[in-house]
Backbone:
């Protein structure tokens, strides 16, 4: 996406409500450091790649609509 993306992408990482320090399924696969949760680290990486990251699936549609207009 970062190098070859030409269309807007909206992403959501599930598992953001997992207790800090607890790995829950695949959400714990990437951890950026002691202060990051897996979800926070993944969201940061996605944003750095140009993906519009949302914190709730309820905002995916409106975020995509804004991205398409922008």
Residues:
């Amino acid at each position: 996406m970062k190098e070859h993306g030409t269309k807007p992408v909206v992403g959501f990482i599930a598992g953001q409500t997992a207790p800090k320090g607890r790995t829950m399924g695949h959400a714990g696969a990437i951890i950026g450091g002691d202060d990051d949760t897996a979800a926070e680290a993944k969201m940061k990486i996605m944003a750095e790649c140009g993906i519009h990251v949302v914190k709730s699936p309820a905002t995916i549609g409106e975020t995509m609509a804004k991205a398409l207009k922008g």
User: Anything to note?
Assistant: Strands lie at 10-12, 52-54.
